[in-house]
Amino acid sequence: MLGVWIIQMLSKYWYDGQLFEQDTICLSIDDPGLNYGATIFTTLRVYQQSLEHPLTQWNAHCHRLEKSLQEFGWCLPNWQQIWQGANHLITTYPVLRIAIFPDGREWIRGRFLPDNLAQSQQQGVKGWLASYPLFQRTLNAHKTGNYLGAWLALQQAKTLDFQEAILVDSQGNWLETSTGNLWGWKQGKWYTPALEVGILPGIGRQQLIHWLYQQNIKIEENQWTPSWIQSLEMIAYSNSVVEVIPFRIIDCHGILLTFDVSDEPLQMLSQYYEVMRCRGDRKNIY
């Protein structure tokens, strides 16, 4: 009889200057990160296992962390330790989540890309319009550990067989999704909600805006009112991990919006990632 070996894969993570291979982390019961969600974080996709790949946007993610730390008056971390920890983990994980505690401790954990990512990019997903005020983010300009409102919205969407939730303000204006920034297309022009309405200044969002300007493609940052949204020909969302994913259906409290996800305009956004992948390939060759 052949014996059967069962191997349990433990998670790898980096915490406070050390690499761990276990599924638990040790925090004080008085830690504000545990008690109040007092951390700031950023999530990045590491392309070709390189923090220097142009699509990884390492410097932009570190700048996001530093900006929040400075505005909160928290201690700056040891950036060299963060670089070291990230390099340990990228040999295993293509996605990293870097969190910083108020005293400057860093915690980096990894995860894998969604199994159905390519299918979602090609075929689109179903979106669900969340309700205000239960499903909302606090401190909208920052990614803090208190992400409960967005997380609850996404869990509720999944319960109802949707893949993403869309957050709104007190007037019903659309802000962002539970995980990314919104994009809309109509009459030869791209639109995305303005930062002034109270959304996260996504790194992927800023890169796409810059790309569209470079390509002389019309782009406008505006307010997404419920009536204006009805005129959009296509809606998608973006973040640093999934790149760009279109919506094929959005449930607006019982009213269904449907879209053709095969339209050519979507390629205007996707082309950015194709070009930057090529630049990263050439950089690695030379």
Describe this structure in words.
This protein has helices at 32-36, 58-72, 79-89, 117-123, 148-159, 203-214, 226-229, 265-285, and strands spanning 12-15, 18-21, 40-45, 95-100, 106-111, 125-129, 164-168, 174-177, 181-186, 189-193, 219-222, 234-239, 243-252, 255-258. With 286 residues, it is of the alpha+beta class. The chain has 2 domains: 12-111, 2-Layer Sandwich (D-amino Acid Aminotransferase, Chain A, domain 1); 117-274, Alpha-Beta Barrel (D-amino Acid Aminotransferase, Chain A, domain 2), CATH 3.20.10.10. The strands form 2 sheets. Strands 6, 7, 8, 9, 10, 11, 12, 13 and 14 form a 9-stranded mixed sheet that branches. It has a 5-stranded antiparallel sheet with strand order 2-1-5-4-3, covered by helices on one side. Strand 4 (95-100) and strand 5 (106-111) form a beta hairpin. The longest helix has 21 residues, at 265-285. The protein starts with 11 loop residues before the first strand and ends with a helix. Mean pLDDT is 94; it is low at 1-7.
What does the secondary structure layout of this molecule look like, with pairings?
Layout: E1 12-15, E2 18-21, H1 32-36, E3 40-45, H2 58-72, H3 79-89, E4 95-100, E5 106-111, H4 117-123, E6 125-129, H5 148-159, E7 164-168, E8 174-177, E9 181-186, E10 189-193, H6 203-214, E11 219-222, H7 226-229, E12 234-239, E13 243-252, E14 255-258, H8 265-285
